[in-house]
Amino acid sequence: MKETKVNLLEKSFPNLYREGLGTGVQDGWFDLIYDLSSSIEKLILKEPEDERESYHVIQVKEKFGGLRFYMNRTTERMAELISEAERRSHYVCEKTGNPGRRLNVCGWIKTLSPEAFVSEMISRRNWEMYSALKRLAENQLDEPNDEGVVIDRREFEWAQKTLKRWQEIDQMMKKFCEQEGIFYH
Fold it and tell me: Angle 127-138/153-180 helices, nearest 10 degrees?
């Protein structure tokens, strides 16, 4: 999350974030976290003054495509609010704040909108590496390539296996984009 948004949360909810906000989430969940923080801050202020310091955030992060909001201590109502926000996070894109869904991004579960999913996949898909792997996988074993380099069997098999995975990702992307009506080339 951008520093300006972290600062806004810390200033707006000083009891909740008395020890700072350790966040491992992107900007898309800011509104969700802000609303949750507002509700919890109000509950903290209803607690006896000598107990208020014992309620604060330990960590806010993403795990398996969902929001995780950890406090050192909660009331039953605080725990309910946290659970509800964590459930809602499965339908809000963690990058953009738009409607999203849980998707597998190269082995990582993330909650993303269709556009954010495409962006994430493209950024993970290093085109230069893909091109190099393709050239390597297409080489003949024990024959010099264009640069005069001889490829050994392990390198060749690794390149072919990795290229196959890239091609699977490409097919998955095309299918997803087709379903979502997003242009993908």
Answer: 130
The structural domain count of the chain equals 2
Q: Is 99 part of any domain?
A: no
User: 0.90 exceeded by the pTM?
Assistant: no
Residue 144 gets which letter from DSSP?
B
How does pLDDT run across 10-36, given as a tens digit for each residue?
999 999 998 887 678 999 999 999 999
Any idea what DSSP says for residue 95? T
How far out from the chain centre does Cα 107 lie?
A: 12
Q: How far is CA 72 from CA 54, 88, 178, in A?
A: 7, 22, 45
- Measured between alpha carbons, how far is 117 from 93 in angstroms, rounded to an integer? 9
- Asked whether residue 39 is assigned to any structural domain, the reply reads yes
Query: What stretches of 22-141 show up as alpha helix (H) in DSSP?
Result: 30-46, 76-88, 114-124, 127-138
Cite the beta strand spans of the chain per DSSP E. Answer: 23-24, 57-63, 66-71, 101-105, 108-112
